[in-house]
Amino acid sequence: MATPNTPLWEVFIRSRNGLAHKHVGSLHASDATMALQAARDLYTRRGEGLSIWVVPSTAITASDPAEKGMMFEPAESKIYRHPTFYEVPEEVGHM
Amino acid sequence: MYTQALNTAEADDRGLEDAAKAAQFQARIDAEERIEPNDWMPAAYRKTLTRQISQHAHSEIVGMLPEGNWITRAPSLRRKAALLAKVQDECGHGLYLYAAAETLGTSREELVDAMLTGKAKYSSIFNYPTLTWADIGTIGWLVDGAAIMNQIPLCRCSYGPYARAMIRVCKEESFHQRQGYEIMLTLCRGSDEQKAMAQDALNRWWWPVLMMFGPPDATSQHSDTSTKWKIKRFSNDELRQKFVDATVPQAQYLGLTIPDPGMIQDADGHWRYSEIDWSEFKQVLAGNGPCNRDRLAARRKAHEEGAWVREAAAAYAAKRAQRRTAQAAE
User: Which of A79, B40, B122, B175 is the least crowded, having the fewest Cβ atoms under 10 Å away?
Assistant: First the structure.
């Protein structure tokens, strides 16, 4: 029997410091349980995390890199969204 | 005739379009931007990286064999635990690298098959045998030391997934080198026999380790484009010299002699080594090293004997998926 290619999973880990789960890499596993176990062995050999998510790679919808100009332009031109855009006199102190 | 003419025109157009894209691509590289899997890239860039990353992955996996050979015979529980952890790391490094190579569009199964059939190469250093415990110390100290020298610049490689994998690898690699040096230090502070064992291992590994950096710059066939694409940041000879300069004082501290009577320190402080015997390198690369056949046979055996596990896992996953579909239909 020919074994089908083993599905790909993306691995996300939340580290000790309370930040969000972060993408750390990917791995192959037949099912979610095995993916979690493999992620534990592969990505947390030195206490890198307290929580693991595994997501089938096929479940991810990604933005198109060819359209990144159009996609992210709206944020580029709106400098008034940043605090440094506004002037506060030095006498007022840190704000 | 007509269709042929059309085809030519189309091909020409594509050539022009590719030239424009290639120029844009090179501009991104020159601006130190990272190339990501879904970005446009020249076919040759994809091919070069697939070859380099997968061969790097194969090297990590085959690299488990010479050291795995000593796990059951490590001289103490502490050494055994450390060696086991190191070999596990090598496996992990292989898996990070396979994942990075796959993002270029070749499946894991194809990559692994290329190694098992002997089509893809792996680092020739792993075709040398580990005869004594001192070899384990020497591998950690020198082989991993040379690997670190090679891999640190790769953390800034233009291909994002490769660079990210290398950052993880480099973080873990330092433990490998230190545990190796500690083994050497212990042997060198031990009995005369132990020190002789350390010297013997250094004698056997020194030249093969220098060959790990690849052919001299004058003859290397992949370097030029790799440098242009910022896959490679330093030349083979530059890295080799850096390694030698870092290693000689470490050997002196151990009280060991580098097996190169012609080695001299020049006015700039660089240690100049003698001519390397590249015919040996070519022989090992061609499959005629001391352990080439053993290494491949061991990988094939492991792959074949693991087939039932892969099949059972796939069958179980298929059965579960079928059950879920049936339940959803009820």
Answer: A79
Does B40 reach chain A within 8 Å, measured CB to CB? yes
How far is B21 from B17, CA to CA, in rounded Å?
A: 6
**Residue B313 in contact with partner chain A when CB distance is under 8 A:** yes
How many helices (H) and strands (E) in chain B? 14, 2
E strand or H helix that includes residue B150: helix B144-154
Give CA–CA dist B140/B75, Å, rounded: 16
What is the rounded CA–CA span in Å between residue B182 and residue B127? 24
The pLDDT value recorded for residue B18 is 83
Contact A7, A54 (CB under 8 A): no
d(CA B16, CA B12): 6
- Neighbouring CB atoms inside 10 A of B210's CB total 20
Residues of chain B positioned with their CB less than 8 A from the CB of A9: none
Q: The complex's ipTM?
A: 0.84
* Domain annotation covers residue A3: no
- Cα separation of A39 and B88, whole Å? 14
Domain that residue A13 falls in: 8-92
Best of B172, B310, B324 to substitute, by most chain A Cβ atoms within 10 angstroms, is: B310
CATH of the domain at A73: 3.10.20.520
Spatial distance between the Cα atoms of B54 and B97, rounded to a whole number of angstroms: 7
Q: Which of residues 250-309 of B touch A (CB under 8 A)?
A: 307
Contacts for B112 with CB less than 8 Å, ≥ 6 apart: B98, B303
Q: Which tens digit of pLDDT belongs to each residue from B78-135?
A: 999 999 999 999 999 999 999 999 999 999 999 999 999 999 999 999 999 999 999 9
Cβ-contact B59, B123 below 8 angstroms: yes
User: Under an 8 A CB cutoff, do B310 and A3 touch?
Assistant: yes
- Residues B147 and B151: their CA atoms lie apart, in Å, by 6
The number of folded domains in chain A is 1
A1 in any annotated domain = no
Is residue A22 in a domain?
Answer: yes
The Cα–Cα gap between A25 and A65 comes to 19
